[in-house]
Amino acid sequence: NSDVKSVTRTVILFQEIPCIIVLDKLIKKQYPSTFSARWHIENKDNEGTSRTSANSFSIIRPGARFYAVCSASQKLKIESAKLPIPEKEGVYPYINVALPEKAKESFIVMVGCPLQERETQPQITIKQTDRRTWHVDLVHGTKKLKLDIFNNGKLPEFELKAIKV
User: Backbone phi, then psi, for 149, in 5-degree steps?
Assistant: First the structure.
């Protein structure tokens, strides 16, 4: 698309917790558009499922799951879907994290943790403190993370405020 100025995905991994933070950013030159990030679910055995809420999602597999919380520069819509192909070709579910309102610049923050099937999900809070700054607080058992994310320029930046493992 010739009107796209920049599309970036920044991945921050904290193995000790464990957690992953993904920052998806779109900048358009002139014409506003919608933006979304998809999280595909492994489903070759037809046992991949999902759950969604207003600002979070879970990907569920036998014996394991992935829990994530999202925030964005605009109103967020999270929903489960599947690729529109005949089921005889396979079922390919995914989570769609979308910003349905058109904008020239869009930004999505996703903070998630892999978990064992019955493990307590972490407490994840993402607060937008001003137009371009997000503060992440994560508590996973006895492990804690505090991180600030700055949506400035083409590439987002981040500052680790505290980590306890």
Answer: -120, 135
If you ran DSSP here, which 8-state letter would residue 85 be given? Answer: S
Q: In angstroms, rounded to a whole number, what is the distance separating the alpha carbons of residues 70 and 96?
A: 11
Assessment of whether the complete model's pTM goes beyond 0.85 = yes
Average pLDDT over residues 13-30: 97
* Rounded Cα–Cα distance for residues 2 and 47 (Å): 40
130/110 Cα distance (integer angstroms): 18
Tell me: cis bond preceding 18? Omega within 30 of 0 counts.
yes
Please, what is the average pLDDT of the chain?
96
* Other beta carbons less than 10 A from residue 125's beta carbon: 12
What count of residues does the chain have? 165
Q: Which runs of E-coded beta strand occur in 77-152?
A: 77-82, 93-103, 105-116, 123-130, 133-140, 143-150
1 — pLDDT class (breaks 50, 70, 90) = confident
> How far apart are the C-alpha atoms of 109 and 10, rounded to whole Å?
10
Locate 84 and state its tokens: 């529109």
Tokens (6 digits) for 85? 């192909």
Identity at 55, one-letter amino acid code = N
Beta bridge pairs of residue 147: 136, 160
